[in-house]
Amino acid sequence: MRSDGRRRRRWSAGEVQEALVISGEIPLWLVDGDDRIAFVNDAAVRTLGYDSDDELLGRPSHDTVHWKHPDGSPYPAEDCPITHATRRGEPIRMERDWWVRKDGSMVPISIHCVQMEIDGRMGTAMTFHDLTASVEAEQERRRYDVERARLGEVRASRTRIVEAADEQRRRLVRDLHDGAQSGLVRIVLALQLALRGGDVPGEVRTLVGDALGDARSAIDELRELAHGIHPAVLTRSGLAAGVRAMADRASVPVVVDVADERYPEPVELAAYFVAAEALTNVAKYARASTARVTTTRTESHLVLTVDDDGIGGARASAGRGLAGLADRLAALDGTLTVSSQPGKGTCVRAEIPLSTPAPPAAAAELDVPPHDIERLA
Known about the structure:
The protein is α+β, with helices and mostly antiparallel strands. It has helices at residues 13-20, 42-47, 61-65, 81-88, 132-196, 202-229, 232-237, 239-249, 265-286, 320-331, 370-376; strands at residues 28-31, 37-40, 92-100, 106-118, 121-130, 254-257, 291-297, 301-308, 335-339, 346-353. The strands form two sheets. Strands 2-1-5-4-3 form a five-stranded antiparallel sheet, sandwiched between helices. It starts with 12 loop residues before the first helix and ends with a helix.
């Protein structure tokens, strides 16, 4: 009898079973005052992997579905908040718990327990929901976040490698400029002074003249070598000037349709080296009569294409050059594609994002100072 004078309805397990059969697909069961399963519906039987409720009725609730943690360690009843709440007659709600299926596997669930009188004693009614789908989605999101973080680190690592290589090229160019080239310039000047002397025998004059010619050729070769390492014209004047200078040295006629526009240094370097490698391949393999270098700028990308009218049949994976360029572009989140049907020429296309860090201060260039050029003429 309740203190407010209203009678508490005493439910029998049979009456509760009748009332709860309408629960449909919501997993539901009742636990009596001895912590034994008094009722379980079909949805709960399915969720826990049993064949029928006969396998569950009368069994200890905790020792049947809650006897271990997800890591396999034991879960004593005295540590179970559900058991304590049941004994105290308190409601409990758990947003995430793990119960044990018949086969020993774990199922994530949310639980809502309320006090209920069963056969004259206080027991508990439990509804629970299978959270497998949401847990799997959560795990998939975690995996995605981890993979995205790893991919970001890979991209950052690639970028650092490319930037380090570019800095090494600039350093090498500076060393050539300040070291070998300066030494050759001094040799040329000394040989010129020697030739201007009136007491140089004819035979020696011929040898000195030959040495002067060799020194000048060495300077030209050194400048050409440095140009391939890190082109000074690219740093000084931009992509269009760099491609035009490259086209002037090409062994086949090259049409250049590149706008006189500056881009971030990593973008210009990537585009330049794509054009250089593509034109080198044209000269070596394409048997082409002409080639064309074109750039277009979209809202987010610089697109560079190199087309030729050669024999086609080129493959991006055939050599290290284009593969290395693909890696360089990937470090910038760019792409490289090669279209080359036999007999229909080749098109190399690079798409390079423009959202790259601003270029650092211009590197030292490998060029003979103007006054030295005049003196060497």
